[in-house]
Amino acid sequence: MGHVTAAHAAINVPQFAPTTRYLAVVSLRRTVRNLATYGAPYGLMEAAPRLPRPAPRPNTVSDEQLAMLLSSAPPHLQLYLLLCHDCALRGGTAARVSWSNLIDTALLTIRSKRSTIVRVPISGRLATLISLCPKGDGTLVSLLAGHRVGHSALHQHFKRVLAHCGLPMTIRLHDLRRTMAEKTYRLTSDLRVVQTLLGHDSLGSTLQYLQRPAHAYMDALAASIETITGAKG
Which residue of 54, 76, 167, 176 has the fewest CB atoms within a 10 Å radius of its CB? Predict the structure, then answer.
């Protein structure tokens, strides 16, 4: 019981981001639940802390901001940014993409966090950059750079380009993935298409990326109801 109490205190340390604390709670409760099957003390699960799921980040990147980033980035970083945006990949996943993930340079095949196979069409501008990559066993970003480039180095390079462009330093690589999800939903109005793009097993996860479009559609729905019912007329 003391370990759960200590974990509860650590989870509420202010310097941890809300999402970090929430994921720590989920992990702790999963561990406690597993321990209960092996005879852990009664009431241990009740002592495990609970936290509400934090609201998703609403940040997205405008077309102008993306254009600034691409114009200031070297080719290998352009490739990385477009993998995060055009293919809506997570930063770590984009950094690992290799020739083995490509099907005729028109389709990208990867495994999601849940090991689901995700297939995403490759945009024309991304295909152009990929065509510049020499054949090899390394990642596409490293092959285009001419030397090994890891995820951490790419992240730091991204931050330097942000500063060079005078863009907000609060922009994250994951905001590119969220931006593509929002654009796709606004274009198609189809949650299943966005779910396929993001490689999610559940629509609930997909909805976490679409808070801003949801508000916009709700406003449109409210206006439609008023018009249809003649409440304002």
Answer: 54
Residue 178 falls within a domain, yes or no?
Answer: no
Range of the domain at 23: 2-47
Please report whether residue 140 resides in a domain.
Answer: yes
Cβ(175)–Cβ(61) below 8 Å: yes
What is the full per-residue pLDDT of the chain (233 aa) written as tens digits? 455 555 555 556 666 667 677 777 777 778 877 777 777 676 666 777 777 776 666 789 999 999 999 999 999 999 999 999 999 999 999 999 999 999 887 899 988 776 778 899 999 999 999 999 999 999 999 999 999 999 999 999 999 999 999 999 999 999 999 999 999 998 998 999 999 999 988 888 888 888 777 666 677 777 788 788 885 54
CATH number (domain holding residue 149): 1.10.443.10
Q: CA 94, CA 35: separation in Å to the nearest integer?
A: 36
pTM of the model: 0.76
